[in-house]
Amino acid sequence: MLVQLVELQQLMDELYGVADRERGVPATVAWLCEELGELAQAVRKGTREQQLHELGDVLAWLASLANQLDLSLDEAVARYVDNPP
């Protein structure tokens, strides 16, 4: 099943939005960093399934952060389509 970025943000808001907002941005950034560390470890030593799991966790926390900041992941990634750095 393919999921669009806007759909991912909507899903994360429906599932975790209230708890995420209560946790706040600083704690969400901390959790995102932890998940990035777990992804890095999975890339180095994990299986493909572990890598996919951790990649999904990173995307979910990133969507949560974007929601809390009232930002669109679609807008954030648009510069790579329109004018890549």
Task: Write a compact overview of the structure shown.
The chain has 85 residues and is mainly α.
What order do the SSEs take from the amino end to the carboxyl end, as H and E? HHHH
Residue ranges: pLDDT <50 for 5 or more in a row?
Answer: none
Overall pLDDT metric: 96
Q: What overall geometry do the principal axes of the alpha carbons give?
A: globular
- Oligomeric state of the chains in view: single chain
Relative strand content = under 5%
> Cα-atom Rg, whole angstroms?
14 Å
User: In whole angstroms, how far apart are the ends?
Assistant: 30 Å
CATH homologous superfamily annotation: MazG-like
Our count of domains comes out at: 1
Helix content: over 70%
- Going by helix content, strand content and strand pairing, the class is mainly alpha
Any idea of the CATH class? Mainly Alpha
Main beta sheet: strand number and arrangement?
none
- What's the architecture, going by CATH? Orthogonal Bundle
